[in-house]
Amino acid sequence: MVLLCAHNEEGSFGFVLNRFIDMAIGDLMDDMPPSKSRISIGGPVQSSNLYYLHTLGKHIEGSVAVLDDIQMGGDFDQLRAVLTADPKLAKHVRFFVGYSGWSEGQLEKELGQRSWLVHPADKRRVMNTSLKDLWGDTLRGMGKAFAPLANFPRTHRTTERPSSRAPCSPAGNRDQQAVRVALGAVAGNPLRTA
Known about the structure:
Distance between the termini: 14 Å
Mean pLDDT: 79
Largest sheet: 10 strands, mixed
Low-confidence stretches: 156-179, 185-194
Number of helices: 5
């Protein structure tokens, strides 16, 4: 499942929300206060870099609005200082190693092939790293037509083409279950929703 943070004529950018690494933020960055939040694998692009979303917008200069009061990035030294001064604020930050990216027209092509379902993003799904089944929870929240897809086994892979009435194409997903879900967050996002 990917949170789409930017989508324009140059391409698309986002973070995988339902893949994690077994490391603490202190293992990745020096002088960071401890956090109980899980570190996400944001995607395969620039996987040696650390990115973050937060709900501390007024406290972190240079942040970019993504969704509601969710911001992306900003002054990292300022973030470190805010979290050091009040470690309880760490629950308002979500860290990602790497990101997911698509070149110009690539995501539109995948959408045309019905490789993705698109659903509006919400703060609870984006910022909560303790949800046990984010993927299934989101599909069930998309309505009765999509709820059965939440029961696909995690290891399901198929090369068969779905029928024309199928809600999406299960072929080729390497990251999670057979269906990929993109959560659209960008204001004016031209992606169609399910």
